[in-house]
C-alpha cells in the first residue's frame, strides 16, 4: 500500500483520489479552497444556483466508469441524461443551425442551412472515425509512452496540419468552419495553433452525444466529494500545496501550508507550473484562459433556447441555459470572448436576446477571478502547435513517484479527458 498525496480537489483530483483509494492505497487529498470540486461546483446567490464551469459532458462512459470503479454505479445516485438539442449556432448573416447528436439529424440540420452542406458536414465528421480509434487505443485509454508510440499514433500526433488549415481545405462555407472549430475557440485556442486531429471532438459529440445532470452538473462534483469519506480518503481543505519534496531524485513528500505530508506517490492535479519541483518541466506551456462568465438570475421564464446558443462574431457570446432559481424565476449563464467593450448583457441584447428587463441578480466572473479562485485555469494548456501534446505532463512525469492528472495533464481539458487522465494515472500506479 502506497501513501498517496493528490494535489488539487477538482474533477481530476477527486477522480484520481477515489480510484487510487479503491485500488487499496492510503490517499490524502490536498485542496487549497474550503470546498472540493474546482470548476465542477455551484455558484449561488439570492436563491439562484449555476454551474460554475461545466454544464454538460461528452463521453458519458468516462463518468459511468469512474462511478462503477469507485463505488455505487452512477445511476444509483444521479441521472445522466442526453441533451436533445445540444447547441444552436447563430451567424452574423442572420442564419442559424441547431445541432442534436446523431449523423442523420446533423445531416438534415446542415442541409437546412444550405443545400449540400449536410453531406459536407457528415463527411467531415466521419473523416475522424479512424483517428478516434487510434487516439482511443494509444493515447486516451492506455498510458502512452511519448518516445515510443505506435506508428499510426505518432503519424497523427506529429502531423503538421493545423485545424485551421484542415477546415479551410474542407469547407468553402465559413459557417461550417465556425461550427467545426467552435469547441476549441470556446476554450480560448487559436485554430492556427491547434493540430487538425483535435477536430475529433465533433465526431465524439455526434456519435456519443452530450449529457447533463438534472439540477446541474455540479451535483456530479458533490457526489464525488461525498464519496471521499466512503472510500477513506483524507481530504485536507483550506490547505495549499506549495511544492513536491524530492529527495535522492524521488518524490518523498508534498510541502503544504499545513506542513509536509509524506508520500510514496504524488498526483499533481493542478497546473504543474505552480509547483517548483515540476515547473522546470513545463516552462514552454501556457494556460488557456477562461472566458468572461456572467451568471444571470431572471424574473419569470428564460427565453426558450437550446442548452447552448453560440452567437458568432466579435465578441463571441455563448448562452447556456439552466440552473436553480426561486419560484417564478429562471437562471442562465453567458460566456464572452473577444472584444467586450460594453456590458455583456448589452452586447447580448444586440443579438435580440435582451435579458435586462428581467434581470434580478448577476454574478460576474472575469477570467482572472476564475484563475485566482481555482489556482490555475480549468481549461488547461493552450495549444501552441503540434509540440504542445508532448509538453504536457502525464500520466507519468520526469520526477519518479510523481504523476499528473487534470486539465493540464495528458489528455487535456474538459470533463471526459480529465476523467480519462485519472484513469490513466490509476493504471500507471496500479493496485496496492
Ligand atoms: C467557464 C467554463 C466552462 C466549462 N464548461 C465545460 C463543459 O461544459 N463541459 C466540459 O466537459 N468541460 C467544461 N469546462 C472544462 C472543465 O471544467 C475542466 O476541464 C475540468 O473541470 C478541470 O478539472 P481539474 O480538476 O483539472 O481542474 P479544476 O477544476 O481547476 O480544479 C483544480 C483544483 O485544484 C485546487 N488547487 C489549485 N492549486 C492548488 C494547490 N497548490 N494546492 C491545493 N489545491 C490546489 C483548486 O482550488 C481546484 O479546486 C469548462 C471550464 C470553464 C472554466
Describe, in plain words, how this protein is organized in 3D.
- The protein has 432 residues and is an alpha/beta fold.
- It folds into three domains: 3-40 and 220-285 and 382-429, FAD/NAD(P)-binding domain (3-Layer(bba) Sandwich); 98-206, no CATH class; 292-372.
- The protein has helices spanning 11-22, 60-70, 103-113, 117-126, 129-140, 151-158, 163-170, 174-186, 200-208, 218-230, 276-279, 344-349, 367-374, 388-391, 415-429; strands at 3-7, 26-30, 42-45, 48-51, 80-82, 87-90, 96-99, 211-213, 234-236, 241-247, 250-256, 259-262, 265-268, 292-299, 308-311, 316-321, 329-337, 359-365, 402-404.
- Helix 1 packs parallel to helix 10.
- The longest helix has 15 residues, at 415-429.
- The protein binds flavin-adenine dinucleotide (FAD).
Quick rundown:
The chain is 33% helix and 22% strand. By secondary structure, it is α/β, with parallel strands linked by helices.
Amino acid at each position: 500500500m502506497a501513501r498517496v498525496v493528490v494535489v488539487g480537489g477538482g474533477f481530476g483530483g477527486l477522480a484520481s483520489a477515489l480510484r487510487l483509494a479503491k485500488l487499496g492505497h492510503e490517499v490524502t487529498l490536498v485542496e487549497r479552497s474550503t470546498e472540493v470540486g474546482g470548476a465542477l461546483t455551484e455558484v449561488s446567490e439570492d436563491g439562484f444556483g449555476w454551474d460554475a464551469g461545466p454544464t454538460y459532458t461528452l463521453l458519458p462512459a468516462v463518468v459511468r466508469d469512474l462511478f462503477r470503479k469507485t463505488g455505487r454505479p452512477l445511476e444509483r445516485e444521479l441521472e445522466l441524461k442526453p441533451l436533445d438539442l445540444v447547441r444552436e449556432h447563430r451567424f452574423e448573416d442572420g442564419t442559424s443551425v441547431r445541432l442534436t447528436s446523431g449523423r442523420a439529424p446533423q445531416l438534415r440540420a446542415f442541409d437546412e442551412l444550405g443545400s449540400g452542406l449536410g453531406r459536407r458536414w457528415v463527411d467531415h465528421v466521419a473523416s475522424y472515425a479512424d483517428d478516434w480509434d487510434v487516439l482511443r487505443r494509444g493515447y486516451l485509454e492506455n498510458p502512452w509512452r511519448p518516445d515510443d508510440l505506435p506508428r499510426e499514433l505518432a503519424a497523427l500526433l506529429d502531423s503538421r496540419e493545423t485545424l485551421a488549415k484542415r477546415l479551410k481545405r474542407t469547407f468553402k462555407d465559413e459557417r461550417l468552419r465556425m461550427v467545426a472549430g467552435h469547441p476549441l475557440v470556446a476554450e480560448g485556442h487559436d485554430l492556427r495553433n491547434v493540430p487538425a486531429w483535435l477536430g475529433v471532438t465533433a465526431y465524439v459529440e455526434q456519435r456519443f452525444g452530450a449529457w447533463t445532470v438534472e439540477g446541474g452538473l455540479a451535483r456530479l462534483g458533490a457526489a464525488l466529494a461525498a464519496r471521499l469519506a466512503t472510500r477513506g480518503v483524507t481530504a485536507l481543505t483550506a490547505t495549499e500545496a506549495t511544492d513536491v519534496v524530492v529527495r535522492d531524485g524521488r518524490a518523498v513528500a508534498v510541502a503544504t501550508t499545513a506542513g509536509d505530508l509524506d508520500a510514496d506517490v504524488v498526483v499533481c492535479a493542478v497546473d504543474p507550473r505552480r509547483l517548483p519541483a515540476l515547473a522546470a518541466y513545463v516552462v514552454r506551456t501556457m494556460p488557456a484562459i477562461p472566458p468572461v462568465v456572467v451568471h444571470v438570475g431572471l424574473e419569470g421564464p428564460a427565453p426558450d433556447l437550446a442548452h447552448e446558443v453560440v452567437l458568432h462574431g466579435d465578441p463571441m457570446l455563448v448562452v447556456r441555459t439552466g440552473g436553480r432559481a426561486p419560484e417564478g424565476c429562471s437562471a442562465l449563464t453567458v460566456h464572452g470572448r473577444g472584444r467586450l467593450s460594453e456590458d455583456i448583457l448589452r452586447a447580448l441584447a444586440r443579438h435580440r436576446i435582451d435579458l435586462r428587463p428581467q434581470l434580478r441578480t448577476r454574478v460576474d466572473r472575469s477570467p482572472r477571478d476564475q484563475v485566482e479562485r481555482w489556482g490555475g485555469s480549468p481549461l488547461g494548456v493552450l495549444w501552441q502547435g503540434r509540440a504542445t501534446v508532448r509538453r504536457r505532463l502525464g500520466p507519468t512525469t520526469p520526477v519518479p513517484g510523481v504523476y499528473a492528472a487534470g486539465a493540464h495533464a495528458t489528455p487535456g481539458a474538459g470533463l471526459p479527458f480529465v476523467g480519462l487522465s485519472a484513469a490513466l494515472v490509476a493504471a500507471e500506479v496500479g493496485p496496492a
